[in-house]
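Reopening this ticket.

The earlier resolution said the output was attached, but the attachment link was broken on my side. Pasting everything inline this time so it's all in one place.
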Amino acid sequence: MNSSGWKAENKFVSDKGEENSCYRDEADKEWEKRKEEIGLYKRKIDLIVFLPDSLLVNEPSLRDKTYKYLQIVRSLSIFRVNKLIIYRDPLLDNEPRYDKELITKLHNYYLVPPYLRKKLIPIDPMLKYVGAAPPLRLLIHSVGSKPVIGEYRQGYVEKKHSSYVLVDAGLQKLIRVICIDECPSREKIILFKLTSTRPLEGEYRKLYQSILYTGPILEYKDDLLKEIKKLREKAYYLMATSKYGRKICLNLLTSLKKSFEELYKGIAILFGAPYYGLHEIFKGYGKSLGEYVDIVINTLPNQGTKTVRTEEALHSTLSIINLII
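Inline output:
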């Protein structure tokens, strides 16, 4: 493996090939202490999903768009996807892209802890229907109104000092968070561990941001092919989904699991658009899909419906991949 990543024995390796044992020892201790809540932590192998910027184009109303995008964010969060990349759909080049602003606002809303939304999210007509959909309920958000020593929380930084910060974490009073590492300089929302209830105190370590799962990061990319090439150079396994792909089976899953454990830093899964698949999208670039990915798979063989919606394909694919990583 040529780039940074997790080796099969789960030791972090730097770009120079050196094991960062200090980082891994601390991380392993955190995983061991809370392994009954493993969903609280990021995956040890990076998982990225690509969706087109046309993913909401067939939804007729703001309510429908809101509900569909929450379903997508919930699926990504259930399976602890690290990053969602929205790529430019080349077959929509002459169409206005009204949904980018909506997607960004919805994504930011869902990933802010519920106890901080009134403070951080202004009233916005685009967010009119967020209450009509079921809550996201990330594990990192699932904390009570009473403090519990040892729990992790996200908090909004109200004041900064040289060795500590004062944060609002939904506990009525500000919490004094001691910076074990250098205090955050730009971050407004930080992760910390509660260490005392009387007085209210916590500790901040950069490690927490590295290992705790706070939902998928959202990025927009205009050039899909360029991003795929970058990931290939970083030793990511590139997987495309299509009804014309190789049917998923036990032998294929066994082979993929072995490859993931031994060869790759992460996995990137590509999905097509509501009205056409990845083969058509790559033809729009003047390219062949098979030249850019490691495998094209069909995770819903013998489907009983004429079409499969984006959110359905996403959930079924991630359900299968979840079994082997």
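Reporter confirms the inline version is readable. Confidence is low (pLDDT under 50) at residues 1-21. DSSP finds nine helices and 13 strands in the chain.
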